[in-house]
Specification:
This is Cellulase family glycosylhydrolase. InterPro entries: Carbo-bd_X2, CBM46, GH, Glyco_hydro_5, Glyco_hydro_5_endoGlcnase_B, Glycosyl_hydrolase_5, Ig-like_fold, Ig_E-set. The chain is α/β, with parallel strands linked by helices and 560 residues long. Helices cover 30% and strands 25% of the residues. The chain has 15 helices and 28 strands. A hairpin with a 2-residue loop joins strand 14 (391-396) and strand 15.
Length: 560
């Protein structure tokens, strides 16, 4: 109990500033950290590489890092690179916790290459945060000793490195078994203070090296930001930078609970985050690096979130970061930049991200315009998100369409005429019939796919909980989300607090195979013998109902 009280007392002193002697902004040398942070924009993460918890940097599926890879990333316009490093599996036993010299040398080699390519480089302690650092509430002394051992060795190894090398104390700090946030804040303050003391104590370039301190969970909630601000005040060091991560409004980020659109709720969550960063850190003279950003659903598949919705997310994110003066580092575990081929897996997404570093782009309410095959074709109106730009024209391939006969514009409303849509959809079959390019006065064009469809048709099926796939004639439509309820109206399946299930985790469409797969994870939380009503919501606006029943490991399904 005395150790806990001592840590809480430290936190109280940090909060009042008694351990410091003045606000952080009054001590910062003119522009030095802020200029460095600005020079680091934009940044990229070498994810799932040295942070992998297996035997080496390839254990999570990425190739061995080459200098050519780093040069390729530099050529994409990135000015900084975050190299997450997990040290624990490469450490010897207590009391020395010696880092494997070969592993440390390999990290030094890649850091050296990155510095030689002109990058600012940030390295850290990464997945150790949940592997062993998180036990600090119940194993305080052993965790602190091991943590100190890592930074003692790493700081010494990089003592004379370029000042463009930046050190980050710990990734996404978290604690298990604590008494609550007060203790968590105190533990993190203790780790950050130890990191600061060790690095500064090695002298050389480390005496003034830029050091990056995270909030608890690298989360931008107000309490987390306030606690970190108190740490900056206490440490009284002008060469400190704050870091948080941003993966968006959680239901949108993973496509659950009906969050499949980048709607007003998801937008306001983003705007609120950046406002808190301005008020709590940036406005106090504390530079901020957003050390990771993206969407959590990308870890399963980048198609978990519909293309147009994620493009709108990244467009607004880039604008908010520019307005706030925050440096952003794209999380890339191999799902974005193909490290073997040296190309972006989704060029359209990267072009939108890169454009957002410089300017705004116009978008629209959707990138999909559905035209029913079995009904007369009529004019259609969509809402534009001008985002401060001006709408200019519409292109189809190399041709500019005619304002009047092909489309009309009134304010933020774009109407495509029936004559245009008839021409675009005259060929037989379902699917994308044309991709229109909506042009604005600046930024990247907005692609609008004209898609012919009819109501999807689902068929009866039997199968097993290990892999049930219901036959689906998608008829050109695309699946947005799925609800699952029992006959009494209560929610079925995982995330029982919402009827809307998680895309790619509870269900996933397989368009080439013509099926919708329901996962073992879904059936694991379905009552045996109870009929479940599934409603599949499609991007056209169609909703198709289906019933499934699990009996042991057997599953039967029928359309409504």
């Amino acid at each position: 109990m005395s150790r806990l009280l001592g840590r809480l007392l430290v936190l109280a002193l940090l909060a009042t500033g008694l351990a410091a002697g003045g606000p952080a902004q009054a001590r910062e040398p003119a522009h030095t950290p802020a200029r460095a942070v600005a020079a680091m924009q934009p940044g990229w993460n070498l994810g799932n590489t040295f942070d992998a918890t297996g035997a080496d940097e390839t254990s999570w599926g990425n190739p061995r890092v080459t200098r050519e890879l780093l040069a390729g990333i530099r050529a994409q316009g990135f000015k900084s690179i975050r190299i997450p490093v997990t040290w624990g599996q490469h450490q010897g036993p207590a009391p020395d916790h010696t880092i494997d010299p070969a592993y440390l040398a390999r990290v030094r080699e890649v850091v050296g290459w990155a510095l030689d390519e002109g990058f600012y480089v940030m390295i850290n302690i990464h997945h150790d945060s949940w592997q062993w650092i998180n036990t600090m509430p119940t194993d305080h002394d052993n965790v602190l000793t091991r943590y100190n051992a890592v930074w003692t060795q790493v700081a010494a190894a990089f003592r004379d490195a370029s000042p463009r090398l930046v050190l980050e104390s710990v990734n996404e700090p978290q604690f298990s078994g604590s008494s609550g946030d007060a203790e968590n804040y105190a533990l993190l303050a203790e780790l950050n203070a130890a990191f600061h003391r060790i690095v500064r104590g090695t002298g050389g370039g480390n005496a003034t090296r830029l050091l990056v301190l995270p909030t608890l969970h690298t989360n931008a909630d107000q309490g987390r930001l306030d606690a970190l601000t108190a740490e900056f005040t206490a440490l009284n060091d002008p060469n400190l930078i704050a870091t948080v991560h941003y993966y968006g409004y959680w239901p949108f980020s993973v496509n659950v609970a009906g969050g499949y659109r980048f709607d007003a709720t998801a937008q306001q969550e983003m705007l609120g985050t950046f406002q808190r960063l301005r008020d709590s850190l940036i406005g106090r003279g504390i530079p901020v690096i957003l050390g990771e950003y993206g969407l959590l659903g990308f870890d399963r598949h980048t198609g978990t979130i519909e293309q147009g919705e994620k493009l709108k997310f990244f467009e607004l994110f880039g604008q908010q970061a520019r307005a706030a003066g925050v440096t952003t580092m794209l999380w890339d575990n191999g799902q974005h930049f193909d490290r073997a081929a040296g190309i972006w897996r989704d060029t359209e997404l990267f072009v939108q991200i890169a454009s957002s570093w410089r300017t705004r782009s116009g978008t629209a309410e959707s990138d999909l315009l559905f035209v029913r095959r079995s009904a007369p074709v009529t004019a259609r109106t969509i809402t534009l998100n001008l985002n401060g730009t001006g709408f200019t024209h519409v292109r189809l391939g190399g041709a500019t369409l005619r304002r009047g006969p092909d489309y009309q514009v009134a304010g933020d409303k774009l109407t495509l005429t029936s004559g245009l849509l008839k021409r675009l959809t005259k060929t037989q079959g379902y699917g994308v019939k044309a991709s229109l390019s909506l042009r604005f006065s600046r930024g990247v064009p907005w692609r609008l796919d004209v898609v012919t469809f009819d109501t999807p048709q689902l068929s009866a099926a039997t199968g097993a909980t290990a892999g049930f796939a219901l036959p689906a004639a998608f008829n050109g439509d695309r699946l947005a989300t799925m609800t699952a309820t029992y006959a009494d109206g209560t929610n079925a399946g995982p995330h029982s607090w919402t009827p809307y299930k998680e895309f790619d985790r509870a269900f996933t469409p397989d368009y080439p195979a013509g099926t919708i797969k329901l996962t073992p994870e879904f059936f694991a939380e379905v009552t045996d013998g109870a009929s479940v009503t599934l409603k599949f919501h499609f991007w056209s606006g169609e909703i198709v109902t289906y019933h499934v029943t699990r009996t042991g490991t057997a599953v039967s399904g029928t359309p409504a």
